[in-house]
Amino acid sequence: MHEIRFSGLGGQGIIRSGFIVGRACSIYDNKYATMTQSFGPEARGSACSSQLVVSEEKILYPYITQPHILVSMSREAYEKYEPELQEDGTLVIDEDLVSPVLRAQIRIFKIPATRFAEELGNRIIANLVMLGFFTAVTNVVSYEAMKKAIPGSVPDRALALNMKGFERGYAYGREQLKQQ
Amino acid sequence: MKADPRGVLTGAHYLDGDHACAEGALAAGCRFFAGYPITPSTEVAERIAARFPECGGVFIQMEDELASSIAIIGAAWTGKKSMTVTSGPGFSLMQEHIGLAVMLETPCVLVNVQRGGPSTGLPTLPGQADMMQARWGSHGDYEIIALAPNSPQECFDFTIDCFNLSEKYRIPVLLMTDECVGHMTERVIIPQAEEIDLVERKYYHGDKSKYLPFKPDKDMIPPMVKAGDGYRFHVTGLTHDERGYPVMSWQCQEVLVRRLVEKIKNNADEIYRYEEENTDNADVVIVSYGISSRVASRAIDLARKQGVKVGFIRLIVVWPFPEKKIAELAAKTKALITVEMNYGQIALEVERCAHGKCKTLLVPHGGGWVHDPQDILAKIKEALQ
User: Is the dihedral of CA B303, B309, B315, B316 positive or negative?
Assistant: First the structure.
């Protein structure tokens, strides 16, 4: 079972990130995935997060208790959620936006997701770059399932750009794994 | 009768409970919606507004919940299946019209995505404290049907069930969900239209001059006609006879209100639904519903790992209340523990039906977030002392 928290600022597509991974897992990878999210005044600009439980079996208790994967795309969100990450958990960050203070056994994967998105033409797809990276460096969801889950989860007019972002992040992740 | 394919979005989807509820309504043939936005239920209305044009439905955003709840009654009398959606404060405003719908025997569905109360309370956070209001919120004596889903899939399935029950018994049916389930996203499988069975409204087809709008058949349910089909009839919230005309007498009251109550009570065995697990030889049985039932399952796992024999009953239909089932469980276990997000509502029913045959305990919670499974575990241990 995986307990994952995606975190960042409202407006970065953080809730959407949890949604896409959850959709990929539960519809295309034949697993169970429950996504929950914080609903509050954090529409734009403050720390927000979506939580995802992924399991081979039916999920009864729907919430994360101690995530073992934390994805962070803002400093504020990182500081808010880092303490709950499991001792031997995995941290996935946008390295230009988060400067982590590492605990001993935490595995860390870093990508300049927002910078890559800007290079591709629009920073709004930073979350898809991050998702490509996430797909490569964790074993939560398959690349094939993600490729099927993205269409229909992002606006049609921006699908090609989003896919490009996803591929960029995925390729960068594969590269990093090889180097390790 | 099978579902109209225009409303059925067949396939595997990743939906939150609110959106799944909207899809359930569409699949059930709901083609009239009146509502007033309120967190955490607004997504239901939004999805219905987006989808209705594709399948010929009418969506009206009303000026408030009073208007919404009476508009759906009017629409039902024209032959439409109709629904409204709200949360606590709006549900309070709708109580008068729930009573009117009961009195006029109007099939319609009201969804309450419960949040923390009283009053405006906690708009974005969950509660389960409207359960007694669902049962007794309108004045006068009546029976009601209420279902409690615990997942987006059930929001879809049970919304269809709500429509079917409302058509069958000519009664407003309540879907009592909550913010957690409403805003939780999971896989929802929507079947083919021909796999969805719908209850067809019973219509009168006889001589127009002999039509009596409130003359029941043997099943205690009067057949309906559609307003505009040329029948003369009168509907009123006043106590009425078979013609629908007001009659201010205790005799008429006795005939009418007894039938309104008995058409549900006498059919309760067909309406009750629950899931039961390991209740034979259990030392303790947990009673729960809605999101709390999923939270309780974690505590039950923990307790079983420690060797405690824990049974579980999850109420799917909460009203009418499964009196005989609870009495039967009370006779064979040491304690019934109710887990719900309030300070004791369904727990009172459990206590009543247990009739002193076993201990009855509550794990109270004011809402705003779900129970800590450890609190439930502690109560299980307390029950065994």
Answer: positive
